[in-house]
Amino acid sequence: MSAPNDITRWSAAQIAARVAGREVRAEEVARAHLERISGLDKEVGAFITVLEESSLAQAREVDRRIAAGEAAGRLSGVPVAIKDNMLMEGTETTCGSRILKGYRAPYDATVVGRLKAAGAVIIGKTNLDEFAMGSSTENSSFFPTRNPWALDRVPGGSSGGSAAAVAAGMAALSLGSDTGGSIRQPAALCGIVGLKPTYGLVSRYGLVAFASSLDQIGPFARTTEDAALALSVLAGHDPLDSTSAEVEPRDYLRELEGRKDLKGLRVGVPKEYFIEGMEPDAERSVREGLKTLEELGARTCEVSLPHTRFAVSTYYLIAPAEASSNLARFDGVRYGSSEARQDREANLLSVYERTRGEGFGPEVKRRIMLGTYALSSGYYDAYYGKAQRVRTLIRQDFDEAFQSVDILASPTSPSAAFRLGEKSGDPMQMYLSDIFTIPCNLAGNAGISIPCGLTSAGLPVGLQLLAPTFEEGRLFQVSRVFERARPFPVLDAR
Amino acid sequence: MSISEKDVAHIARLARLFVTPQEVKRYQEQLGKILDSMEELKSLDTSKVRPTAHVLGLADVFRADEPRRSVDPETLLAAAPEREGPYFKVRKVLE
Questions:
Q1: Is B1 a residue whose pLDDT tops 80?
Q2: d(CA A335, nearest CA chain B) in Å
């Protein structure tokens, strides 16, 4: 089904250049991806909505503009998949939840608007753990997504659909959101690049909020170049997002080739990120990745982030607390599913309780309850207040480490892709799969996961690189040098 | 410390979530386990540490007060389960 000249294996940069150069029409590119989706997605389950009509219309519009000699956008004709917790005007946005089934977005998220303006073609909306709460995409209310490398395994989560779509060539790029690792962990498990930008670098206007002090949107890509290209389009201040950072726009793509090797780069390896219970095969792969960094000229040294072991507890107080507040808006009064449609007589309290009791799935309810408890009178100081103070200590760990090193390198996740059902029975087990990604969200800095090898079972392993705030350019440069030395594994197209 | 069934029912009411008696039992066990594991935070002395609410240290944000188009009210109202004219309809709060 797949030849080397198969359009669905082209990188986003290649597609954009070829569409702009009129070597291929955007419509052909869109059709090739739609065909791949219809041939493959019954098994993978990456998409909740495939936007066949509107993507072809967008592609034809790109072709028309280019034929008319208008300036081509940087993502001309690039098929992009969007996690279904971001709004695209007129399309259904479900957050993977029954409570939003049938909800049509009234406007475009800023990121969707930026992609469209750059000539991208939005190919579909992807599956996720309900309201982005989970690490396996098994918490979707509709169906689980499967890992294209091994269909009996999870793609990671919560942005599992977006990761699977790019890994399997159903989209050239995709967007995810990362609150505690929801871009980096699925990128690792699906063998692709996933970036969590610095908090505030990418606008969240039109992203359905989960935990507002942690959420950040970022790209998935199969190459470093594509991730840098995507961020160059996505990043920038947005007056519609009051938490959007006022920083000068940068061209990450132009900075990308700034390094030929890693001479002089100081890489800290946090000892707390190599733990008992880590899958030996995955650890071996990460160690080999660290060795590659050294061979490329980097100096690695052990560093300590002493409060790491408190990060999971801190996160699972702060994120649910913020979620319990954010998700209060799903009350059956203004949109979404509602008990008011079923029961003409029910009073307001009953409309609230039944709408939410039936609309939310078990993990979302568990987190709303945990968060409500952590914020409730008598417990606030002991739980939420305490977690906010420990968060300060975790940030300080990073500030101190970055005094002496340029980046940190670690495993992205303690294991490669696990089997469906393997961890879904025990919430604490599932929470621990985010143990290496959570601290970066609490600190707000930049993080990327890049592929660093395969386990003996042929499953991808991710290497996580962390940089100080707004140093995404540094991460891309290191990733690019690494990728040239150890090309990322390519999933054999089936 | 563990959490009682009564606590769970109280939290569910505060969170406006209808839960069945079986769910109350399940959440009591699961939340109890999760909260127990969070006891580890108590081992840290944070008496002299300031809390982090937000990493960017944001202050109030202002923009120029210029008129611009916003979403058409009809589009928004179309998603409502119940409306009356240009309003969202809300069930009676007081009997």
A1: no
A2: 5
